[in-house]
TrEMBL record:
G5 domain ranges (all copies): 147-227
GO biological process terms held by the UniProt record: peptidoglycan turnover
SUPFAM superfamilies: Barwin-like endoglucanases (SSF50685)
Database matches in InterPro entries: 3D_dom, DUF348, G5_dom, Resuscitation_pf_RpfB, RlpA-like_sf
Gene Ontology CC terms, in alphabetical order: outer membrane
Protein name: G5 domain-containing protein
Organism: Clostridium estertheticum subsp. estertheticum
GO terms assigned for molecular function: hydrolase activity, hydrolyzing O-glycosyl compounds
Keyword vocabulary terms for this entry: Membrane, Signal, Transmembrane, Transmembrane helix
Keyword presence, Signal: yes
Length: 353
């Protein structure tokens, strides 16, 4: 009996120990399973699946040897708790160069494009500033971005208006005689100019308004038309009078497809004719003996159209401008003086076939 009792007691102890071991293993397994989590790490669009027993994303990344730079963008807080099948996205910062306000800035950014990078760097951009490449350009390592500050101001100038010389014929005065009956006096006009600057340097100036302050006074010259008196021996003195009739000069005929009235202004490039380009990509030119480049509204006059502009000559529509709308043509000249002399004129333009 004693032997049987001891045998049964030994089996009970083994059972209890076995039960305890099973309970410990089960509990441990449940605990391990409860802290074991699958996560996905996306770095610059490339996904990696991993298993972690860490509580936060920061610890999980550190445990996996993934470092985070201060300029990198992470879509979750590193101290946020991990949920099973959680996803964390990391965008690595890259180096770009920004040229602005006469300075070169070495910038490290994880922004998507140029616009977001400039905003993140607190670089103010005005609506008139030029950005190259465009603000929509995606950032890439080593990309160079140039910000050109563009502003304009309105100035006024006074310029003389040349007087005209008028010749009046008088048949009571010999044709060999010419006298000045009235001296000419220059007038005065006020010109309003819009001057554009890029990074503080003037690039263009354009006449936007012209006002006549003082009317010029014509110079009048009296020209005799009476022929010399001829005297013949034994004859009386006779006077021969002739009436000069003006014969119209025939001009070379041109073939026009359309004719209409337009408002014209003048502009020039302060960088020089050979350094100024039109919207169509060709260099601006003023060629009185050929075709000069002018700016038009393409919806009225398509680019490439050949024109004849009264008082200006043959021209080709090669340029545009934000202020050139409707029946309005901006004529290119070689210098500021020629622009001032032209001012603002309303005249007829012919579309050449």
């Amino acid at each position: 009996m004693i032997f049987i009792f001891k045998f049964m007691e030994g089996k009970r102890i083994k059972f209890v120990i076995g039960f305890i071991l099973v309970a410990i293993i089960t509990t441990s397994t449940i605990f391990v399973c409860s802290i074991r989590k699958n996560i996905t790490v996306v770095i610059d669009g490339k996904s990696t699946n991993m298993v972690t027993y860490q509580k936060t994303f920061g610890n999980a990344l550190k445990k996996s040897g993934i470092s985070i730079d201060v300029k990198d963008k992470v879509d979750k807080a590193l101290n946020s708790k991990i949920q099973n099948n959680g996803v964390i996205t990391i965008t690595r910062a890259i180096n770009v160069n920004v040229f602005v306000d006469n300075k070169k800035l070495n910038v490290k950014s994880a922004e998507k494009d140029v616009a977001l990078m400039l905003k993140a760097q607190q670089i103010d951009i005005s609506p008139t500033d030029k950005i190259s490449p465009s603000k929509e350009t995606k950032l890439s390592s080593g990309l160079g971005i140039t910000v050109t500050r563009v502003n304009s101001k309105t100035i006024k100038q006074s310029k003389p208006v040349d007087f005209k010389t008028v010749i009046k014929e008088n048949d009571s005065i010999l044709k060999s005689e010419r006298t000045v009956s009235q001296n000419g006096v220059n007038g005065l006009k006020s010109i309003t100019l819009n001057v554009t600057y890029e990074n503080g340097k003037e690039v263009t100036r354009k006449v936007v308004k012209e006002t006549l302050v003082t009317q010029p006074k014509d110079k009048i010259i009296v020209q005799g038309t009476m022929p010399a008196v001829s005297v013949s021996r034994g004859s009386s003195i006779s006077r021969e009078s002739q009436v000069a009739k003006a014969t119209p000069i025939s001009s070379k005929s041109n073939s026009y497809s359309k004719t209409f009235s337009v408002k014209t202004t003048a502009y020039w490039g302060s960088e020089g004719t050979n350094n100024t380009y039109t919207a169509s990509g060709q260099k601006t030119v003023r060629n009185p003996n050929g075709y000069s480049t002018v700016a038009v509204d393409p919806s009225v006059i398509p680019l490439g159209t050949k024109l004849y502009i009264e008082g200006y000559g043959n021209a080709i529509a090669a340029d545009t401008g934000s202020a050139i709308k409707g029946k309005f043509i901006d004529l290119f000249f070689n210098n500021e003086g020629e622009c001032g002399d032209w001012g603002v004129r309303y005249l007829t333009v012919h579309i050449l076939n």
